[in-house]
Write a structure and sequence with these properties.
It is built from one helix and 17 strands. The protein is an all-beta fold. It is globular and about 55 Å long.
């Protein structure tokens, strides 16, 4: 079984798959009479003719080492995941190789940080570490087939 070391999440390392959703070093502007920092347009909602929707996903936890054997992608829209509580989580992603997932990568996403996966990016299921977690999810609803799932030879992620 292939074992993959989990990487720390950085905007540069994650860029081939999407965007990191975290405040910038400095706000784009101050709003609300100077009481609120606005970190503007951290990501774009791709929706290819559908509607952007907001949902809450509640996911059971995983422990490390974590065995991943299922990847999915959404070819018609992006999918953003923002944790609603505290705790790190694991984002598993893979490049597309001729319509199939390539070698997966695992990113340790710090507490309070989210990611926005671009349309068509292969990814694992939600994987909060050590305790169940709720995620605010922004994705696409509409006509067309927007979910592809594949099983892969199991890959183990660990620190």
């Amino acid at each position: 079984m292939t074992q993959i070391r989990i990487e720390p999440l950085t905007a540069e390392a994650f860029a081939p798959f999407g965007d990191v959703l975290a405040p910038k070093p400095a706000p784009d502007r101050m709003i609300n009479a100077g009481r609120c920092e606005r970190h503007h347009a951290l990501a774009t909602v791709e929706r290819h003719g559908g509607e952007a929707i907001i949902s809450i996903f509640r996911s059971d936890p995983v422990s490390l080492p974590y065995e991943c054997a299922l990847l999915e992608r959404h070819p018609l829209g992006s999918q953003a995941f923002m944790p609603m509580g505290q705790g790190a989580w694991l984002s598993v992603v893979a490049p597309d190789v001729d319509g199939h997932p390539g070698r997966p990568r695992g990113f340790l996403v710090p507490s309070g940080v989210g990611v926005n996966l671009r349309a068509g990016v292969w990814h694992g299921v939600l994987t909060p570490l050590d305790h169940a977690a709720d995620f605010l999810v922004v994705d696409r609803e509409g006509d067309g087939v927007n979910l592809q799932e594949v099983t892969i030879p199991p890959v183990v992620f660990d620190r």
